From TrEMBL:
Stretches the record annotates as Disordered: 1-66
Biased segments, Basic and acidic residues type: 25-65
Record's protein name: CDP-Glycerol:Poly(Glycerophosphate) glycerophosphotransferase
Organism domain of life: Bacteria
Amino acid sequence: MSTAQDFSGPVGRGGVGEYNVDGTANREPRTANREPRTANREPRTANREPRTANREPRTANRDDPWATAPVRRRVLGVVRNLTALDRLADVLTVLADDFRVETRFTHAAGSEFDADLSGHFRRAGMHVVPWSQACGRNFDLAISPSGNGALHELDMPVLTLSHGAGHHKHLPSGRGFGPEVAGLAHEQLVRDGRVVPSVVCLSHRDQFELLARECPLAKDRAEVVGDPCFDRLRISTPSRQSYRNSLGTGDRELVLLASTWGPRALFGRAPELAADLVDALPARSHQVALVLHPNVWARHGPWQIRQWTDRARQAGLVLVPPEHGWKAALVAADTVVSDHGSLGMYAATLGKRLLLAEFGHREVVAGTPREELGRRAAYLERDRPLREQVERAAPVAGHAELVNAAFARPGGAASALRRVIYEQLGLAEPAWRAVARPLDPFVPE
């Protein structure tokens, strides 16, 4: 039986109560109508060194006498690459409007895809601290959308979560993809016999079985919170027309071509498909947009991506920038042509018409919803007329079942995540409801 705590309740089940001047909780009990946290579960402190001994009191601005805001806790966003930064944008919305909590960011070195990360920080206006400073005692919680990096060096509780649509892919390495599950592997979660994360967030209860298999030491750290990205996509559907206006779609059918990264990705196997679709679909009735995984942009560079797509862009292809826009473009799309990446999974669960042009079966963990998508979805045959296939595309059969298989209680991720984060911070939740935040419009390339 799964022992992961499931916090994926309905939207709006936020914390109640006041908070004291020193930031400690003065709150009503949280046990009503809730499963006991200790039932069938190992203690949360198992295999972990105490973190409270000889620790400074968590007081306001203890290291910054020049600060103005009444900060009580500091959160550290740990970023290895643009993919992680994008996921943090979904997660950190739950801290909005709380003057007690300040967030700063740090670059965790070691990713092969961290090109121009400092530029992304700068353009977003984020306060960045060097890793050496982040490893000190100036933060109360680190949030990392990756289990990779030297997280064991951080002297604070660490919360990890997936940077995609669940833990469905094998762990990549310089030699390809190994048998381990990315984000749940023992080598990512344990250092010197100690489980590093205080919390391992999962998007669905079924992933607990993967965690228990991959890293038994960490199974008592699991919290089922749902998927904040999926919730933002779904709640943004009423704004679909504004995103289409940003793309200049008008009344045309928007066909979104989406590729993950790596040699088995759509862009790696069929880089000419964007130009072929632009040629095959009349511009008066169709618009084609291209979304590439941020790792593709980081590895090859924006200039090279534009160089490779020059003819297609001259003919009308819209190139969606890596920093932002892919979510809004997905909401705006009528038909999606994708591969085994997260965007294809999100497209299927949103009920979009979907065709798979590639699918890296060896990269996908057996028995997961991502593997099921690879079996259920229709495939684009590039040796047949493309227009006919695009116009006949349909939503994946049983896509509602995929939603329930991939995401725990859709609509409740913001509430669940906020509850977990504030418990780690030792603060009462704000009085307002935690809800998914709609996406902003964007300007394409």
